[in-house]
């Protein structure tokens, strides 16, 4: 345990997995509030997100998202994901055909188009046109929410850690134009479904059903837009950043890439060329590859909790610490993920760490890419699903190689205060192997 002060607020950094388990799971009720907070008047669409809420409000909003992302709902979302993968595949084929079978690409921009199109279809029920040259695609519009490093950090630090200053300066994490854009989409889609009598079996329709209020079962459109925005936060930037790091590691480790492609091709043969829900779930080696990449470069570099009730923490060495209400508790994800106490050769990319034989030997609370306990990421399964689908689509017909334009070594840099991103632009070369 390491003590510190965040301005005038006392804090404690914990590194012992058992203490982390205490904070995140066994004594969750004493640490159920995250330090990040938002002004509901400035951020009306984000203040229902489970990450920013606590108590009954957190419980209610999380239950809606969990219900809307149930196992049977994920199977339908997998069908929507196939549409995105077809667009992704067609786009790459167009690019390679215009470039003698290979082309250089900023992989973060490419993966942002993929995750944006997925969110557009799955959460908002629209064609995002993210792989087209149109000027106002879904991807082009929403990227302004995550400005370049520097500006993004100022906005993130102010909105999450200095909310009183954000309120005075009227600084928003979600820009007003994005707020209006999301609301406009939801209003149009819901009006269309009402006019046509369409009842879809998607995430949006389930959220609509869960957000009906009053005797007349009126739809609370603000609540619907808010939960769609939560889907966006869980499925867009973090997934595109993770995919960028994963593809970089595959380019840097061709043996791993070849082994993963073999698994992908075997599954395509098994499922008659169709990227089904079952196909995605069976890719065990891909699961290992993604998890190892998230170990080295987690998109959430730390978790920050607030103690709500005085509590005594006891370390593995017997050291006791009385934690007073209001104390911040910091859990460094990247610190845990690269700690040589827990991981052999922690800076080496090795997917075999997460094989069935090895992963059972690890303490559950030394690996936290999605958090853990009751406040773990609601969108974890859907994030893994879309990342696996993107990689399977890409590696089926193409190889990935490093491009000289990428400045190594690649590390992480915080973006928008909370989310980590590559510290340099990631340029990779995609080559056809058909």
TrEMBL record:
Gene3D superfamilies: Cytochrome P450. It comes from the Eukaryota. PROSITE patterns: CYTOCHROME_P450. It is found in: Endoplasmic reticulum membrane; Microsome membrane. GO terms for molecular function: heme binding; iron ion binding; monooxygenase activity; oxidoreductase activity, acting on paired donors, with incorporation or reduction of molecular oxygen. One of its GO terms (cellular component) is endoplasmic reticulum membrane. Belongs to the cytochrome P450 family. This is Cytochrome P450. It comes from Microctonus aethiopoides.
